[in-house]
Amino acid sequence: MTAKRGPNPRPGILDIAPYVPGTSALPGAGAVVKLSSNETPLGPSPRAVEAYLEQAAHLSRYPDGSARPLREALAKLYGLDAARIVAGAGSDEILNLLAAAYLGPGDEAIYSEHGFLVYKIAILAHGATPVPAPERNLTADVDAILARVTEATRLVFIANPNNPTGTYLPFDEIKRLHAGLPEHVILVLDAAYAEYVRANDYEAGIEMVATSENTVMTRTFSKIYGLAALRLGWAYCPSAVADVLNRIRGPFNVTGPSIAAGVAALADQPHMEQAVAHNTVWRARVAEALDRIGLHTTPSAANFLLVHFPDGTSAREADAFLHQRRIILRRVEEYGFPNALRLTIGTEDENNAVLEALTEFMDGAR
């Protein structure tokens, strides 16, 4: 008897390694210190929570199809043209919309060697060829990227700062990268962690979008604004690109509660600045403490540290050791770091707990 065959996806789809998020729970009872997903330890603004809850009385109504209140709030805060802002269900959706609009079989898209995994997935999902560019000192290398541009290149993805390294390209390097790209290639600046950067030579991408026709900046409310569960992101685009994305996105791709919470979060800038200040202080303290116990970290401009384990120790064993103490960090083998863990900066108590546990682990490894 011949077995029945079901429908098959397009060639290449089953070759895509699905995105696997950081571990979020452990078996057994007891509280967990979760520092695996780069979430803010301060949580969302109370004003955002209140706005979200108020939307419970309106769940039978469709949201504004263009997320107009959110786009107008963003435009007011940053001095942007609201018509050039596109909202999405997280910046992940924006990245996938860009791939859907501009990539197909025979096309290529470039990203840095240790760049966000979603880039490769989005490229492959639309039949295009992913082209990783080597990094220098765990930082995107402009010359390496430009050397890989061909007639088939359509998109260049740059996470700035990058996840999971935390490194960033100064704005002069971004301008040099853009200047070297053909006009038909879109430079996508993924600035998910932009609010955490306090370097004078950094610019998230607003100026580049304002002065070119082939740059898109993507942002998220998942990190510093603490709204990860709502899946809310946005992009600032040239008018032509915004028009394209609005043609293919879902008609109600952002929920009403998400829009309301996002608007309220933007209105509470003191809460956001408090999160920045907390991160700046504790990122330095944690990095210094890790260095003292023999764990090197990549200098980071974001809200996490890439922790490298020395020869003779194992990140996998450290991860298991931390799990025994109800602590979760992020393993990053799929990013090309088999002997490193990514550590999100948490609350004071969480940071101290992970430092105490890693000290114990390193003492036992000596």
From TrEMBL:
Cofactor(s) required, per the database record: pyridoxal 5'-phosphate
Domain Aminotransferase class I/classII large positions: 32-358
GO molecular function: histidinol-phosphate transaminase activity; pyridoxal phosphate binding
Key words, A-Z: Amino-acid biosynthesis, Aminotransferase, Histidine biosynthesis, Pyridoxal phosphate, Transferase
Pathway(s) where this gene product acts: Amino-acid biosynthesis; L-histidine biosynthesis; L-histidine from 5-phospho-alpha-D-ribose 1-diphosphate: step 7/9
Keyword Ribonucleoprotein: no
Domain of life (superkingdom): Bacteria
Range of residues in the leader sequence: none
Record field: catalytic activity: L-histidinol phosphate + 2-oxoglutarate = 3-(imidazol-4-yl)-2-oxopropyl phosphate + L-glutamate
Coiled coil, from the record: none
GO-annotated biological processes: L-histidine biosynthetic process
Residues with N6-(pyridoxal phosphate)lysine modification: K223
This enzyme's EC code(s): 2.6.1.9
NCBIfam families xrefs: hisC
UniProt similarity note: Belongs to the class-II pyridoxal-phosphate-dependent aminotransferase family. Histidinol-phosphate aminotransferase subfamily.
Subunit (UniProt): Homodimer.
Name under which the protein is recorded: Histidinol-phosphate aminotransferase
Annotated organism of origin: Methyloceanibacter superfactus
